[in-house]
What we know:
Blueprint: E1 3-21, E2 24-38, E3 41-47, H1 60-75, H2 86-89, H3 97-114, H4 119-123, E4 129-131, E5 134-136, H5 142-154, E6 160-163, H6 170-179, E7 185-188, H7 198-202, E8 212-213, H8 221-228, E9 235-237, H9 244-252, E10 258-261, H10 263-266, H11 269-281, E11 286-288, H12 295-305, E12 328-329, E13 339-341, E14 351-352, H13 354-360, E15 361-367
Parallel strand pairs: 5-6, 6-7, 7-8, 8-9, 9-10, 10-11
Antiparallel strand pairs: 1-2, 1-15, 2-3, 4-13, 12-14
Amino acid sequence: MKIRKITLREIRMRLLAPFETSFGKSDLRRILLLEADVDGVTGWGESTAGENPFYCYETVETAWHILRDHAWPLVKDREFASAADVWDSLVPVRGHNMAKAALETAVWDAEAKQKNLPLAKLLGGSRQEIPCGVSIGIQPAMAALIEKVERELGAGYQRIKIKIKPGLDVAPVRALRQRFPKIPLMVDANSAYRLEDAPLLKQLDEFYLMMIEQPLGWDDIYSHAALQRQLETAICLDECIHDAQHARAAIELRACRIINMKLGRVGGHAPARRIHDLCESKSIPVWCGGMLESGIGRAHNIAMSSLANFSLPGDVSASRRYWEEDIIEPEVEVTPRGTIHVPNAPGIGYTPRLNRIESLTCRCEVLA
C-alpha cells in the first residue's frame, strides 16, 4: 500500500446557530479536509482543528503546515502493510494530532474501500447502531436552554450535555433537573475551573449527573485526581488525554472514571483503538466526543463508536443539527430512539458530495 498523493482543502461551513463554550463562540467553521490517493483508491479524512488555538494549540493553519511540510514527506513513497502502520511513521512529528488524524483516517477509509469492507468492520467494531447524545452550547437565557433540551429529547437523543462556565453552572443544572428530573444529564466545562473551585463543583453532586467533563486545566491530570477524590460525580477527561500513556496515567491516578475519545485529539483510528483497548481492560467506559465536524469527520466518528467499549451515548448527532446542508450523502440521521445505524457500505459508508465540497472550498493544494 502506497499513498500516491494527498489533496488538502479548506472549506467553510456556517453553523445553523452559533455554538458557545467556556472558551468562545463559533458560527463559521473552517474545516480542513484531506483526500488521499492510495494506490488509485480515494480515502477521505478531516482535521478537527479549530479556527483559534483555544480548545488546544492546533488550528487550521498549523494543521495545513504540518501536513504539507512534515507529515507528507514522512509518508511519501513509503510502502505500508496497512493503514494501521501509518500512525507510527508520523511519530517523529511531536504533537499535532489533529493534523496527523486527517491523514491517518483518510488512509483507513481507502483501505476499507480496497477490501470492500465497512470501515467499522475493518476497525473491529461490533455494533450495528450507536447510541447518540447531544451537546448544547451555553444559552443566553434559561428559557432558551430548556426549550433546546425539550427539542432534543423530542428528537429521541438518549443523553443531554450542556456546556458550563463560571457563573453559568449550578443554576442551569438545577433548572434542568427541576424540569427534567430523570433524563441522563452531564456537563462540560472545557477546562474553565481551577482546583480552588472544588466547593462550587461539589454542589453539582446533588443533581446526580452522569459526569462532569474536563472541569480543570487542559493538561492537568494531577489536579483532576485531587478533585475526583472530593466529588461523588464521575469526572470525564477530554483535553487531558492525547495518547494511551495519558490515559494510563489518568486511570492509575484515579483522575477520572470515564474518558471522552476524539479522533483528532488522539491522532486517528490506530491510537484511538489503543486507548479504547486500555480503557476496556481497566473497566473505564469511553464515548465519542464531537468537534463540530462535517459529515466526513462525523462518518469516521460513527465507525469508531462501533467498538465494544463505546458504551455511553456520544456526541455524534444528525447532520441537520448543525448544517443546512452537509457534504456527504446520505446525510447522517438519528432514529426516533436516539441511535445512528452504522453503515454497511465500504469505507466510511457515506459518499462525499464533490460538487458541494468544491463550492465551499476556499483553498486547495495537491501534494504528490
